## 1
Amino acid sequence: MEFSFSSKYPFTSEAKQKVEGSSLELNDEIMERAVQRVVAALQGKVWKPVYLHPSDDLIDLGSYAAARMMLAHLRNRFLTNKFAVAEAKRAYKLMCEDSEENLGKLGRELGITPQEFEGKLALPVYQYASFSPRSVDYRLIFRNVKGGFVEVTRHEVIRLMEEAVKGRMESYKPLQNPPQIIRDYSKKLMVLVPKEAVLKMSFREGDNPPCIEKLLEGAKEHQNLNHQARLVLAIYLLARNVPVEKVQAIFSNLPDYEEKKTKYQLDHMIRRGYSMASCATLLSYGLCVADCRIGTPLRWKGKVEPWKKGNGSSS
């Protein structure tokens, strides 16, 4: 059966109106499906509901709403970020195969409205800057910018829309006095949250430079670190002779963690002998947070003054 627009994109206002305009009420069937939806996110899987009857469409929308209610009640960053990444990836796959009409409709809701500028597809700079991934490839300095517009491809527009979806999923209003059924099923999710103990290491306070401390703190808080941040953190830890298993345990706290993929990438780094980036490179990545003047994080030996306005380099 063909998915409706609201089924594909349950985070839209159309989906919300569909649920609110129905007689749907929370029950065990919806809550069980909501738990399964979050569990699928924890496992890095894309949610693929099976519709046997038209009414299943509404039940699935209810499961999304129930999942969001549980996450708002729990206020657990790990679960919320995992769910956000999974739902954004699901939306991305659907957007890649969707019609231009639906993409335009979704883009208007998300605040991403590409248009033709001088014969090419482009986005207003403010829209591009608001939703572009934290990747060097998407930095404005490397883009074709003219007349307040940034040239983009259809794929890049969808990628930005994926980021917009993730951002929407990551934000929520704390749920005050949730129904008892939400409280009961929320308890089932809490046992699935990894313990932060995996991040306890032999390092003492001050053993690492500020940039690395910030990345470790980000991992501890289950933030979705970008590619450059992950690469820098992994190379640093391996260079400090932290066991691969421990490094992998740290990365398991990230929302989109995949065990096999992470293990392969770490082994690849070791085989290829990746070297630590310089402080100047970290500055270009936006990862430098202090005026260390040590050239590379591996030369860290102690305290440093925090960044001061006007500093142009950390090396």
## 2
Amino acid sequence: MELTIIGCTGSFPGPNSPASCYLLTADDADGRTWRVLLDLGSGALGTLQQHIDLTQIDAVLLTHLHADHCLDLCGLHVAIKWCPSGWPVPRIPVYGPQGTNERMALAYGLESDPGMTGEFDFAAWQTGRPVQVGPFTVTPSPANHPTDEAYALRVQTTDDDGTHTLAYSGDTDSCPGLVEAAGSADLFLCEAAFHEGRDEVRDVHLTGRRAGEAAAEANAARLVLTHLPIWNDPERSAAEAREVFSGELEVVVPGATYKV
């Protein structure tokens, strides 16, 4: 599978990047290319169109319902509902916490029934229960973040070369679910919104060091730090992680692609 960084700025869009959104692409056994989004945060919908046509989205996988991870679902709703020629493909599956339709309807000023169900096929995550989207097997694990439901996601594909695993932290502080999702991952896409010694609050976000600790405990092969707010120093985040993680490590940049 291939990972493309659509948006990676933490908590709100920055001058050079939207908020959280990551494009995963892989082919199935019949050669059909599938494209799914990990989160669709503030500002991401515009940048996404530099990479794919919106009609090519096969599913949206939401880790939680904070605006910087889900709000551009409202814009996608508009693109589908009001496309002058009619939307040419079926409803887009959207996996997320319980009540995702209701939250998005509220954000856009719609009645919750029907909300956005004409445009999206909503399904709720169930902890530890995998879902299949084309060649992607996606398993949610509970994350540690101040919202009703938050998840880390383990995404796997299988081809002639074996099984390939990408883990995505969503937003979280240290917790068992994060390590479970990242277990022996080929690539661990992990938030590092806080800095050691500056941000003392717990149970919200990881520091670079705590992201490194999770990667080391999970025996992940490669750690890629993301979700850095505009006031974070990427070099500092990476240095914190390198104190405790000896594998391959870098900080994402918008538009970067990774083979998994």
## 3
Amino acid sequence: MKVQFPPRNIEQAIYGVAAFLNACGRPLKVDDIKKYIVYPCGLKDDLSDEKIADFLKSDEKLKHKNGYFFMPGREDLVNEYRRKEEFTNLYWMKALKFVPMLQMVPFIKAVAVCNTLSFNNCSESSDIDIFIIVKDGRIFTARVLSVLLSYILGVRRYGDKIAGRFCLSFYVSENGMNLEKMLQKDDVYLYYWMKALRFLYCRKGFDKRVFYENNTWFEDCPAQKNEFVRGDGLLSLIRVLPEFILGGFLGNILENRLEKMHLLRFERNRRNLGPESDVVVNGSMLKFHNIDRRRQYNERFFRAYKALL
């Protein structure tokens, strides 16, 4: 039987969250449903915590223990998840401290946390993945300056220094915000990646909803709480002068040179990139992931999802 995604009804959507978190190696909590649920196309539902809890507790396909729900035979995920919570909470504090610092960098429009931390599933060896939206025509400049800042602050991931450090490896320009071109066949991961994305900084004049409006294939702007989404503060004044200087002719020269440097490095490294790599280098997107694990997540998801339907 061919199992289709996105889901067609609320029940399938709830099972989808359970199956995806199982693929990530963590159990499900009641509040995870609202955070990560991918609604059926064109359908929204006022899901209360009570309604979700009643559904999960009465469902015979998912097992539960101490407020956690999991696939049969995966009770081990509960203790593992409790152990991970310490690192997840620590890395959220690091993200809330570092991300607002990026407002000092010229041309950055918004910054979000993605991947492991956005799914609240960090281990002691996890890094912190960052997604950055920048002004058109300045993606290479913004990338170099933001990496430089993270290096100066001693928080950049490199070499074997990974745990709790920031991986600045995914940038898009304003005209490159539509990620539909990244969709693979049966690409479940990108749907949940979009839903889990947590914006922590938005520059004055930029609303995170614009990002979702550019991704009409997704059709679901998360009802994300805004208390952690910070705007410009005093630190933003630091970018005013360099942004003015680099906003015109001199900035065009620098951007062109940095683009050539990035493309040259990419061509040199192309031979070492295997078929599992996910590296994109162009004027609207910079994505540096040597290993694309989406296929693995998607395969694990569909095995669990099919078992629940």
## 4
Amino acid sequence: MATTNEFRVGMVIIFNGELHRIDEFIHRTPGNLRAFVQAKLRNLRNGRVTETRFRSGEEVEEVRLEVKESQYLYHDGSFYQFMDQVSYEQVGVEEHKLGEGAKFLKEGETVKLMVANAEIVGAELPPNVTLKVVETIPGVSGDTATRAMKPAKLETGVTVNVPLFINEGDKVKVDTRSGQYLERVKN
């Protein structure tokens, strides 16, 4: 058991009989009233986010997570398929458990899957990935002077905005958390 004083972002708790991850929380003391903790909880089964108030010092059941390094294999339409790096067991993971960064995954990428009670409840994706540009309008010499951007389709099928000097075939580094272009990668 843990108290609300021990809350931290990413902590997994059992709330209303289901696993929830704490996305945000803040301790509040409104004037002369009792203190409470306002928390944003993400249901790990369906991905829904709810805001909940806990009394300050209230006990909640914390769930310990096991982290397994896995290699991304392919997306079969409904599940992302991963292979455990130790046991070579293949497992399917739903997209909402991977988050928005799932669209940047390419085959062979290493991901840390979080397991609680023998169930995959989330994933820690690499902070950035290097992807090849497969489709964009051609760049023109001298386009490096401004901060203008253009859309570019990457090898995973996702479209991001890149500077005008990026051409088809270039490799770019993209932040998986925000989906933003970081830099061009030299071969």
